[in-house]
Amino acid sequence: MSGEFTAEGGHGAVPTEGVETGQGAKPSRRAWPLYEVFVRGKRGLNHVHVGSLHAADDEMALHNARDVYTRRNEGVSIWVVRADAITASSPAEKDPFFAPAGDKVYRHPTFYAIPEEVPHL
Hints:
2 helices
């Protein structure tokens, strides 16, 4: 088997020559948007970021996330979010970004008396 191969996306050797592409039917995998995947392990727990994947649309991303990240019935809920729709703070901006909360001591529960009957607080 001769031809060009690439290990795109960590999925092993993918042929890049002599492969039927459907000329214009769908965008190439490189043009597919990146999705971030979040899975909730059990009811009542938070969704946790488990990885990323490329998909042509939201529905394909959801199905691929199910197949890749919940193979052993680990989850009860999956969220997929286009990575370009996420706005996040930078770890380098930690001090200036979160500094305003430090001088608002009334937001911290240090001024309240907690009864002994209240567990886990």
